[in-house]
């Protein structure tokens, strides 16, 4: 699903992506992305009880500190392997002031849209997220790699934390292009 101002056809954009364009996937760590249909995320305690529900497919991205460290290591390995071209990664953390008091509440995670473009009232700066920069032509290949990543739990089970999640692809100015 494309996001305005890009419209319904990414190949015929009012703001076209050039052959040299850079884009980025936004992966929420805690909170909701400011575009409709993106999957919200929470960070759980590293307790054994929570390990059972980490990575619940599609409805909510569920992290622990351990899975975040493993995911970061995975992203560094993707970058170093070079198969996806040049890949940059960053971890963006919201300040308490940007988060606000209700930042982790269920109301924020499932807040209804309030604009014609399907954006939520909370800005991107109000949540913690990982941003994976890449050449635009590598976007969907990289998205498949993110979806396939699995965390191996201490008991040997595999948990695909991002399987079925809906992430936002943004341009170099952090304007939403599409949700996938």
Keywords:
180 residues; five-stranded antiparallel sheet; alpha+beta; 22% helix
Distance between the termini: 7 Å
Shape: globular
Q: What's the main sheet like?
A: 5 strands, antiparallel
Can you give the mean pLDDT? 78
- Along the chain, the helix and strand elements come as EEHEHEHHEHEEEE
Contiguous uncertain segments of 5+ residues: 9-15, 101-120
What's the total count of β strands?
9
Q: Count the helices. How many?
A: 5
What can you see in these coordinates?
The model is unreliable at 9-15 and 101-120 (pLDDT under 50). The chain has one domain (26-172). The longest helix has 17 residues, at 65-81. The radius of gyration is 16 Å and the shape is globular. It is an alpha+beta fold and 180 residues long. The N and C termini lie close together (7 Å). The protein is built from five helices and nine strands. It has a five-stranded antiparallel sheet, with helices on one face. A two-stranded parallel ribbon has the order 2-3. The protein has a two-stranded antiparallel ribbon with strand order 6-7. Helices cover 22% and strands 22% of the residues. The protein has helices at residues 48-51, 65-81, 96-99, 106-109, 139-148; strands at residues 22-30, 41-43, 61-63, 88-92, 128-135, 151-152, 158-159, 168-170, 176-179.
